[in-house]
Amino acid sequence: MRVLLVYWNPSRELLPAPPIGLAYVAGATRRAGHDVHFVDLVGRARPLEDLRAHLAALGPEVVGLSIRNIDNVVRQRPAWHLEDTGRLAAVVRAASGARLVLGGPAVSILGARVLDHVDGDFAVLGEGEETFPRLLSAIESGAADAPIPGVVTRARAGAAAEPARLPRFGASGLEDWVDWSAYARAGATWPIQTKRGCGLACSYCAYPAVEGRGARRRPPTDVADEIERVSALVGPRAFEFVDSTFNVPPQHAEAVCDEIVARRLRVSLTAMGVNPLGVSERLFARMRRAGFTSMMITPEAASETMLRSLRKGFGVEEVRRTARLARDSGLASMWFFMLGGPGETRDTVEETLAFVERHLAWPGCVVTFMTGIRVLPGTALARDAVEAGALAADRDLAAPTFYLSPDVDEDWMLGRINRAMRRCPAIVHAAEEGMSTYERVVDRALAALGVAPPYWRFLPLLLRVPPVPALRRRRPPLGRPVVW
After folding, report:
1. Alpha-carbon Rg of the chain, whole angstroms?
2. pTM, entire model
3. How far is it, in rounded angstroms, from Cα 68 to Cα 39?
4. For the chain, which residues make up each domain, given as ranges?
5. Phi and psi (nearest 5°) for 135?
6. What are phi and psi for residue 468, nearest 5 degrees?
7. CA dist 134 to 68, 164, 343, 359, 453, Å?
């Protein structure tokens, strides 16, 4: 069949996210014998017009639309990406007679309910490398109305559909489908998966709906092969391990680092998910030798009460230890904290903020705060909120929905973060604009100079340069002076 796969992700909170998931599906679909065309609308000034042009030129029989983000998960500055995605679907409907298939992380999280918001014919849940070609075969043979594992339709919206999981997977093949030069100019990192699935039980996290709880690990030699090949073919300035938790289990992360060192690959590396459960001096030393310059660390709280509430699986002592080891490692780090979850009080907020002021004020460290936690369907947080009467059982969680503890005042929390910012300028709040003009100019300059991303690692310095601290205090986002 003639297939057009479409990627568009308007989110730009930190870096543009390349379409690694859709690249996996595109490669599998081409290997299944279909005529696959790929359009990446990220960064396009007129995405709707560009999509119309591709539809007119190709005349596809099937269009696959990847939906990465439901929204931006920021309570004070919500952006509902499903609404924008619906406009893309409307273009497909108006300009083509193609069958429209929805997929991607947002679809796996929302399930059949996504079809209430985006006008698709089918929704593929879970990993689509096998499911999407199977659906194409069914469409081609006229048997698309029959149940297909991992696929839902409006007609079968009430039927249970388990997300598809692959027993193993390999390289993404992203280099076959994207123009990397555009991503390089925007300061993007090349995504690499070393494993899929996460066995942790964080109360707010919908990741198991996307990839499952059972970890499927790639052999370290396979990971290194991919990095070596992409380095030779494309030459990205940095690779990013995009596993939900790169270092759980730590032995696998260490083995990946050791293989990169053994190959003598001269690459710059970063990781988006480092969990306090799996840190050690040994791991960080191996990461440095492999070429890591930075990492994102996700404790979410530094209060014993809140770590238990969020079901993180570790305590404050592990968070303190991670802070010490991260500082000693010399790697730049971005830490993430979420305030306002079930059981949050002034005392627990103070515990977390005091920890940040005391332990994370060193150069090379950025701290991001969110106030209010996005409630996603199927999570323990959603179930607990319904049981507590804080959320209606029939609430459509496709729309931005946030939990905020009734035992703490939001304005007070934001004011307390403001005081911490004065002491530690490298603290940022998610309500600040995702990419300010200042950051864009700096990122472009760094890219032009050939500096390896991620460029957030320079924020601790940039946020201290006069007059930036004074401007941040005088110009709060969204007209909410209480944030500052």
Report:
1. 22
2. 0.95
3. 15
4. 2-152, 179-483
5. -65, -40
6. -55, -50
7. 22, 12, 46, 52, 38
Hey, is 191 helix, strand or coil? strand
Reduced to 3 states, what is the DSSP secondary structure of residue 15?
A: coil
Closest CA to 150 of 209, 213, 64, 192: 209
- Nearest by Cα to 41 from 1, 92, 113: 92
- The pair of structure tokens assigned to 288 is 């440095």
H/E segment holding residue 295? strand 294-300
User: Distance between CA 85 and CA 93 in Å, rounded?
Assistant: 13
Identify the pLDDT of residue 155. Answer: 78
Residues 98-110 as b or e (16 or more Cβ within 10 Å = b): bbbbbbbbbbbbb
HSE-CB at 222 with a 13 A cutoff on CA atoms is: 14
d(CA 420, CA 281): 29
Check residue 480 and report its DSSP letter: -
What CATH number should be reported for the domain whose range is 2-152? 3.40.50.280
Structure tokens at 55: 């539809």
**What string of DSSP letters covers 111-156?**
GGGGGGTS--SEEE-B-HHHHHHHHHHHHHHT-TTS--TTEE-STT
Per-residue pLDDT tens over the stretch 266-303: 999 999 999 999 999 999 999 999 999 999 999 999 99
State in words which class domain 179-483 has: alpha beta
- Contact yes or no for 186/40 (Cβ under 8 A): no
Separation of first and last alpha carbons in the chain: 55
Q: Provide the mean pLDDT of the chain.
A: 93
- 240 with 269: CB under 8 angstroms? yes
pLDDT(376) > 90: yes
Q: Is the dihedral of CA 228, 233, 236, 237 positive or negative?
A: positive
Residue 451 is given by DSSP the state P
Can you say how many angstroms the Cα of residue 344 is from the centroid of all Cα atoms in its chain? Answer: 25
Q: Quote the tokens at residue 82.
A: 């499903």
Q: Give, in degrees to the nearest 5, the angle at Cα 407 between 201 and 398.
A: 50
- Tell me the C-alpha distance between 294 and 464, whole Å: 19
Written as six digits, the tokens of 357 are 């002021």
Cα–Cα distance, 37 to 177 (Å, whole number) = 9
pLDDT at 13: 62
Which of 420, 391, 401 has the alpha carbon at shortest distance from 483?
A: 420
Give the chain's largest Cα–Cα span.
65
Q: What is the DSSP letter of 464?
A: T
Residue 228 confidence (pLDDT) = 98
